[in-house]
Amino acid sequence: MDILNNLAAGFAVAATPVNLALAVFGCFIGTLVGALPGLGPVNGVAILIPVAFAMKLDPASAMILLTAVYYGTMYGGRISSIMLNIPGDEPAIMTTLDGYPMARSGKAAQALGISAMASFVGATLATVGLTLFAPALARVAIHFGPADYFSLYVMAFATVGGVVGVNPFKTLIAAFLGLMLAAVGLDPGTGIARYTFGTFHLYDGFDPIVAIVGLFAISEVLVYFETAHIGGSPMVPLGRAIPRLREMVQGFPAMLRGAGLGFIAGVLPGAGASLGAFISYTAEKQISNTHDTFGKGDPRGIAAPEAGNNAAAGGALIPMLTLGVPGSGTTAVMLALLISLNIQPGPLLFERSPELVWGLIASLYIANVVLLILNIPMVGIFTRLLSLPQWLLMPLVVMVSFLGIYSISHSPFDLLVMIAFGVFGYLLRKLDFPMVPVVLGLLLGADMENNLRRALSISGGDWGILVQSPIALGIYTVTAVMLALAFRMARRKVSPDPAD
Amino acid sequence: MMDRLVGLLLLALSISYGVTAGSFQASFGDPLGPAAFPMIVAVPAAILSLAMMIWPGPDAVWSLGRPMLMQGAALAVLVGYSLLLEPLGFPLATALGVSLLARLIGSAWLHGLMAGAGLAGILFFVFDWLLNLPLPALPQFLG
Predict the structure, then answer these.
(1) Per residue in A147-190, pLDDT tens?
(2) In terms of C-beta density within 10 A (0-12 exposed, 13-18 middle, 19 or more buried), how is residue A172 classed?
(3) Structural domain of A126
(4) Sign of the Cα pseudo-torsion (A295, A301, A307, A312, in order)
(5) Could you tell me the pTM of the whole model?
(6) Domain total for chain A?
(7) Which residue of A has its CA nearest to B62?
C-alpha cells in the first residue's frame, strides 16, 4: 500500500509541533475570516500569503498554514449565513436559504451544529478523494510535454468562468488582461524589457502576491464604503450553545450526497466551491423536498450545500497540486504562493517534494478534526466576534494586508502598486468582470509563454507541434465543449424565452 | 453604454499592446523571441473587446455623491499611509491611518484614536517582535 506509507510519512511531517500549531492557528483565523461578511476564502488566503512568506516558513509549513485557513474559511462562511442572513463568503450563499429560517425559529445552535457536521463530512470525504485520486492523476500527467502543457493552460483560461459564469466575453477578456500584465518586465529568455515604461521598478514585473492582495483585499475596502449604508438582517440569538449529537446527524444521507456532488464540481476546472454548493442544494431539493419544507429551515437544506461547498474546496486542490492548473480562485492564490516559493506545482511535485504533498494532505485530516472542535463546542466565540464593530475589523484587515506586502519587499512602491490593483479590482467588480481569470493570467502567463517557446524550439519553429500530440488534441476538444457550453448557458440567461 | 465605452478602451489597449510588442527584438535565443507571445495575446483580446462593444451587458449602478467621496477619502488615506510609512515609522503612521479609517467608517473620534493606538501597538509587537519582521520603529527625523 503505497498510499498508506506515503500518508504515514505525511503525518510525521504534519504532526511536528510547528506544523500542528500552524494548522490550529490557520483553522482559527480561517473560521474567523470566513465568518466575517465580505471576507471569503480568497481574501483570507490572500491576506495571509504575504505573512506566511515573510515569516520564511518552509514550503510545506506555509502550505499547511494556508490550506488550514482555506478549509477554515469554508467552515466559517456558514456562520454569518445562519446568524445574520449574510453569506460570509460566496460559497455560503446557498446556506442562507434554509439556515437563516431555521435560526429564526429558535434553532440557531442546531443549524450551526448540522452545518459544522456537514462541513466535516464534506471536507473529510474530499480529503480522502484527494488522497486516492491525486497521485493517480499525477502519474498520468507525468507524460505531458510542453505542447500539452500549453493546451492545458489554454483550457484553464477558457474554462475558468465555469459553465455557469457571467458573461463569457468578459471572463475571457479578464484572462487576457492577466496575460498582458504577465508580460510586463524583463523577458526571461532574452533580457529585453517589455512594457516597463522606462522605470526599473517594473523590471521584475508585477508580483502576483501584491496584485492578489490588492485585487481581493483592497478592493473590498472600496466596496465596503459603497455598501456600508445598506443595513443587514438582525442577528438571531444563539440559544443553547452545544447541540445534541442526534440533532447534528440529521440529514446524514443529504451530507453524503452533497459531498459527492460537491467533490466532482470541485475537481472540474473552473467550477469551485460556489458551484459545488449550488449543485448539491438543487439536487437535494429535487430528492427530498416532498413536503415543501425547503427554504423554510429544513436541516437537509443546510446539510447538502455545506457538505457540497466543503467537498468542492477539497476537490479543487487536486488539479492545482497535480497539474499546476488551479480550478478555483483560492487555489489560484495558493498556486501563487507555491510559485513564489520556487516550487513548481505539477505532476513532478509528487516525486520531488513528497514531504510537502503528503504533509499537506495529512494536515488536512488534522485540520478537519480541529475545525470540528472549533465549530461545535467553540462556535460561540465566532458568533460573538461577528458583533465587533466594523471600524475595528476593517482597519485591521487593511493593516495586515499592508504589513504583509511591506514585510516581503520593504518597498513603499509595492504598496502603491497594491492600491492600484485594488482600484483596478474594484472597477472590474463594478463592470462585472471576474477577477480570478486576471490572477490566473498573471500567474500562469510566464509559464504559458515558456512552454510555447520551448515547444516551438523543439519543432524548429513549426506551429504544427501544438496539435500533434493526442493529449493536447484531447484537451483542446474538452476546452471547445466547455466553451460552447458556457456561451450556450450565457445565451439562455440573457433570453429566458423557453422557446429558445 | 458603459460596456461599449470600456470595450473601446480595451480595444485601444490591445492594439497598442500588440503594436508595442513589435518593437521587442532579439537576434539570439529561441525561434519565437520576446515579441510573439504578446502579439498572440493582443489579437484575441482585441477581437473580444470588439465583441463586447457589439453585445454589451447591462450597465452597472455607480454610487455617486457621498459613497464616492468616502471611497476617495479612503484611497487618500491608503496612499498617504504608503508614502508616510517610512518617514513617520510604523507605529505613528499606523495609528494615524487606522484612526482616520475608523473615523471614515463612522466611529467616534475617541474610539478611532483608541483603535489606532491599540492596533499600532499590537501589530508592531506581533510583526516586529514575535514574527521578527523588522519594521521602521521611529520617525526618520528622530532616527
Answers:
(1) 888 888 888 777 766 544 567 788 889 989 999 999 898 887 77
(2) buried
(3) 2-494
(4) negative
(5) 0.84
(6) 1
(7) A430
